[in-house]
Amino acid sequence: MTANNTTHIDPELQSTEEQVAKIKALRDMVLSAEKTIQGAKAMLLQLEGKKKTGRPRKVDLDTVDGTVVEGTFDGQIMIGTDGRQYPVPANYASKSKLVEGDMLKLTITDRGAFLYKQVGPIDRNHAIAVVTQDENGNYYVIADGKPFRVLLASITYFRAMPGDEVAIVTSQDPDATWAAIENVIQKGARDDWQSALTKATEENESINTWKKDLKDAKPKEDSFVHSNDTFTSEDTHTLDDWVRDMEEIEKEIKQSAS
Q1: Ranges of CATH 2.40.50.140 domains, the chain
Q2: Residues 42-56: pLDDT tens digits?
Q3: According to the CATH classification, is domain 61-120 in 2.40.50?
Q4: CB neighbours of 253 closer than 8 A, spacing ≥ 6?
Q5: Superfamily name and number for 123-216+234-258
Q6: What mean pLDDT, rounded, does the chain reach?
Q7: CB-based contacts of 179: which residues, under 8 Å, 6+ apart?
Q8: What is the pLDDT of residue 20?
Q9: Cβ contacts of residue 247 below 8 Å, gap of 6+?
């Protein structure tokens, strides 16, 4: 009887090995096909005289179709001429150094994208300020004794911390309450930033209260000038002196806070 030395292979094992080989072959075919397609696309672009696409270019808003709304930036959002409020991306506002009062043009594309463009920068003031933070986590910068709000995105963009000395830009409007950071000048320049914020906030509130009281004050009926009353140049000078005195008082209060 002759011995049978033939090695028997498990049919299931053979089937698995064949399947793995087929998968590998298919992957190689796909990779080869992708390379062929990429090469063909490159040749096609070259023949058509087109360049390979790279980074997206800036969009020209004047050529984009969509709804156009203009408005004023209030430090956080845009107040449209239609009376509606439109969100302004904080990163865009920070990088563009938008300040309160800037005129913006918003294009709402057919796909719903919001594209902003600064069309009317307001007159600006430049100042040196110190970064502070209140108990609610809101960031302020104090310049000339007055606290200004700043966007969190501006703080994170410049990696500013409370106590840092920064260069800021604000609107020339004396009632402006927001500022934009231009750059960090010195890290950790002020250790007393908390007390500085408290002092500036209290004195600024006092000034605002004083202004409100003057605005709300109603003169007596007999203090109005009637058509048959005389209004002399001396009265005009007295009124001018009174206004100048108030401005000097306000300036001294701000200087004492700095």
Answers
A1: 123-216+234-258
A2: 666 656 554 444 444
A3: yes
A4: 145, 203, 206, 207
A5: Nucleic acid-binding proteins (2.40.50.140)
A6: 76
A7: 99, 129, 141, 143, 148, 149, 150, 168, 169, 170
A8: 77
A9: none
